[in-house]
Fold these 3 entries.
Entry 1:
Amino acid sequence: MTEPRKINPWLKSALEFGPLVLFFVTFMRMRDKTVTLGGTEYSGFIFATLVFIPVLVLTTLALWRLTGKLSPMQIATLVLVIVFGGLSVWLNDPRFFKMKPTIIYLIFAGLLGLSLVLRKNWLGLVMSEALPMSAQGWHILTQRMAVLFLGLAVANEIVWRSMSETAWVNFKTFGLPLLMVVFFVLNSKLFERHALPKDGE
């Protein structure tokens, strides 16, 4: 198996989070405006989506070119952004793009749940390089992450269906990543308790 090539962590972060930041900035500048393209009027949200899609494609391809590898989540995100973002632009309907995080999180919750049923360590295959842990540790983390993704899917549905577009964009840009960070911080004891010994220990 080919090892991913190392790149500057700042460059990696810029490529991973840059498209989302650009979407946020574009939306905030255009949210009260309309843009006419090809004789059709688009809201600021749809225009921000239209900007976001090709930028995400380019940055994902750049990551793949620089590292030689993409994670399953990056691939799934790219495909669903193209599909659901493309539908939002094509049909001039923001609901499809807002549903995209729900679909992503349900897919991952389902895959993690299936791995538990089949007694397979799929999460460990993806994350073991960053978090070397025992089989028991991966089993516990898989259970917790399945619940996390299910909860995030429900939260996304509640926010986009009951709140304003600005509230959803803020939730998407800052709330969802923050919840993921908090989740891993709260599980730090699990990582310590089930960490595999390093070479020489």
Note: The first helix runs from residue 9 to 30.
Entry 2:
Amino acid sequence: MTCITFAAGQARLPDWRAIRDGAPLTLAPGWRDDVAAGLATLEKALASGAALYGVNTGFGKLASTRIAEGDLAKLQLNLLRSHAAGTGANLPRPVVRLILALKAASLARGASGARPEIVETLLALLEADMLPDVPAQGSVGASGDLAPLAHLSLVLVGEGSATDAQHVTHGGATALAAIGRAPLVLGPKEGLALLNGTQVSTAIALDALYRAGDLLRAALLTGAMSVDAARGSDTPFDPRIHALRGQPGQIRVAEALRQLLAGSAIRDSHREGDIRVQDPYCLRCQPQVMGACLDLIEQAGGTLEREANAVTDNPLLVAGGELLSGGNFHAEPVAFAADTLALALAEIGAIAERRIALLTDPVLSGLPAFLVQAGGLNSGFMIAQVTAAALAAENRAMATPRSVDSLPTSANQEDHVSMATNAALRLTPMAENVEGILAIEYLAAAQGIGFHRPLTSSAAIEAAHARLRGVVAPWDEDRLMAPDIAAARALLRDVEVPLA
């Protein structure tokens, strides 16, 4: 896989996606100079004898407690150990890859007071695919993603655990030895620099962002298939309609749907004499709904791209040689982006579920009830639609904003928190639900198109239909539905639908 190279602070969304998917990372030359400048500022501040938060003081509510010079290294190690209080299942490996890369790139900007050895060790773990075991739960998205980043950082000092590419788990010291590294002794501020920051919530949200974009494209394909299966009109996708509104996502989705349906003989067969004046909203309003979802996804992408390039620990070593305390660790932008993605995911699934309901209803679709002949003896897609409804209902519940649910921590020192990590974590199950709904629509729309033979759909839809029929037979009589849904899910992960 091609190595990704960028200057710290200048990566783009495709760079992070490639790293998530296994690409190695090299930071562009020059970052060591920035790190050296930051370290010089830190050393000067320490020499002044001033109280420096988290460097020679305690943390959070204990910030007024001064730490003796001889205990500064112990302070940083204690920080990692005490804050490794996470719980739950470990984060997926692609997400941990992102966290390592995000943290390395942030520290490489030189504002955090971490030595080059810290950055190099993070990158070495990433390159070897020796990934720290990071429990998913335990961060409220303020003061940084403290607990999960503590678990990740313990490996750098030879503690904690990491799992290699063969899924063998090693203690921290063994993991480092396996990649030719020795455990690090933390310098002043390095523990705090590692734990402070929004890299965990950002990584989880980035992973969900990429999935949301993929699912939206898959939904355009299944939605176009449903239009032809229901003998719907392509008039609602006329560009003149969408130009009058001017919403950019709507215009792009309408164009994509027109391209997907172009040349359909099924559509041509009912241009004249069709007594229906307008289709139900789930067919007709796809540009308006899916376009709004596209705009939300891209808005969230902009926020997350900026956050991925940011320095979000505290205090920060800034131009002019000062050490300033602030609040960049507060992950409100990530929380809002995650909540936005949740809305988009919920709506992508909701409108797709309505199309499934339409296709299985003979009154609305004109197709056999539940898309099967000999109804009664056969139930066809009856319960598949129920499954889709259950998944859509789950997503509606999970779409409730998390960012407004602040819960004070650290004896009210951290009295407003973002809940960004919770906001991001719920996106993965939501994406799984959407994928299940779209898989059912894929099956239902393909079944509906089959009833129109010998008429054919467009080239794009016929290709998608053929891919499905290569692994899933038509539904001639009742059989197990679950294997068909699983097969359709797998195919939808590789869908490519251009969006201008």
Note: The chain has 21 helices and nine strands.
Entry 3:
Amino acid sequence: MRLVVVSAGLSVPSSTRLLGDRLAAAVGRATPGETDVEVEVVELRDLAVEIAHNFTNGFAGKALSAAQEAVTAADGLIVVTPVFSASYSGLFKSFFDVLDKDALAGKPVLIAATGGTARHSLVLEHALRPLFAYLRAVVVPTGVYAASEDWGAEGLDGRIERAAGELAALMRGLSATKRQVRDEFEVVPFAQQLAALSPAERAGV
């Protein structure tokens, strides 16, 4: 299963990236012995210039195009933004503005955010959840907000594990459905079908 973490953190190191990494690791723990989870991280701060150019000229640069393809092909997403002015950051929103409108349709998404105070925790419900509902993603019930005082405190680990378990369950279901559809509708090339026939059967083809 392919899991993509979209991080809008700006600093290095970044608490936003740290939260994304911890969530991704928890998703891996939620699928033990079942399937491998391939994790790719998209750092939006590295794409800021290409995102701006995409708005002005309508073309995605090489790095931005690769990030868009990774997000579109993912079996699940973890999206994490710092809180700016009581909402998601402009960079975070801009990335999803230049993504194809159908890229997230039906895709499992775990929403998360970081901020300096717990007063901004409702950003998950009044900003992020409506955004991804509009994009027709399947947003897991548990969002994760981490204020400065949450790091190392009780409660954050439990929220991370619960949200990651919900995302892993949705990803497993989606992956199983894809395999079933692929198996049922797999097209066998004519040359391969012909090679499987006996000489007498081939003569009559």
Note: Strands lie at 2-7, 38-43, 76-84, 87-88, 108-115, 138-139, 144-147.
